[in-house]
Amino acid sequence: MAGPLKRILRSAPVVRLTADVIALYVRFVRATSRWETRGIEYPQPFWRDGKPFVGAFWHGRLLMMPLAWTTRHPMHVLISQHRDGELIARAMDPFGIGTVRGSTAKQGKADKGGTAALRSILQVLKRGEYVTVTPDGPRGPRMRASTGIVAAARLARVPIIPATYGVARRRLAASWDRFLIPWPFNRGIYLWGEPIDVHSDENESLEQAALRVESALNALCEAADRHCGQPPVEPAPPALTQDDSDG
Questions:
Q1: Is residue 9's pLDDT more than 60?
Q2: How far is CA 65 from CA 43, 78, 121, 189, 232, in A?
Q3: What is the pLDDT of residues 125-169, one digit of tens each?
Q4: By C-alpha distance, which of 167, 232, 165 is closest to 193?
Q5: Per-residue b or e along 221-240, where b marks 16 or more CB atoms closer than 10 Å to that residue's CB
Q6: What residues does each domain of the chain span?
Q7: Would you identify the CATH topology of the domain 2-236?
Q8: Which of 101, 51, 88, 99 is nearest to 73 (CA)?
Q9: pTM for the complete prediction?
Q10: pLDDT at 43 over 80
Q11: Is 132 left (phi over 0), alpha (psi -120 to 50) or beta?
């Protein structure tokens, strides 16, 4: 029965229905909760002047992030080619958010659409539109930034602007990303961080720039969680380098 059940769950009608339920739940949580936004002064000048940037938030904070965006400015979210990507793409559609399919390539791993995704990201940014990336997606490690987002922003010569949200009442899923599910009738906050320049310093490596993005995002998430009276979600342990494993 496992095979037929999986086929049913992955079928287009079931994916569409599930995506509609997710979008409806997001709207219900937003409508029944009190929300505050801080740091909006960081993306506003870019929106006002029509200057693109790459947005960044962790995979575990995906659910409510579409409502942090203003639909006046075209936004595209990088979505993986994994089967879950189609569900996420359809759930984003009612909020006027487009998608770019693929994954930002991780060091030493197979491409899995990373090159094509990078080309698409650059095309979107060249049009003066916006792209947002989950630098730990699609499979982690949790809250650890890959270099792909830096490569995209560096090639386009645009900054990275981190963002997140936190809520007072939540459930953390037992998934690799500790996916945050907010309850309705809640209190929440959206936080935007300062733009991160990753292209001006020619001596900075991709890894060093990715660590700056990672630190900024983790500090932002911790601030959002503490503001809402919740303990911060901990990042996954840092991956061992070859030097670490040898010593």
A1: no
A2: 14, 13, 19, 11, 18
A3: 999 999 999 999 888 999 999 999 999 999 999 999 999 999 999
A4: 165
A5: bbbbbebbebeebebeeeee
A6: 2-236
A7: Glycerol-3-phosphate (1)-acyltransferase (3.40.1130)
A8: 51
A9: 0.89
A10: yes
A11: beta
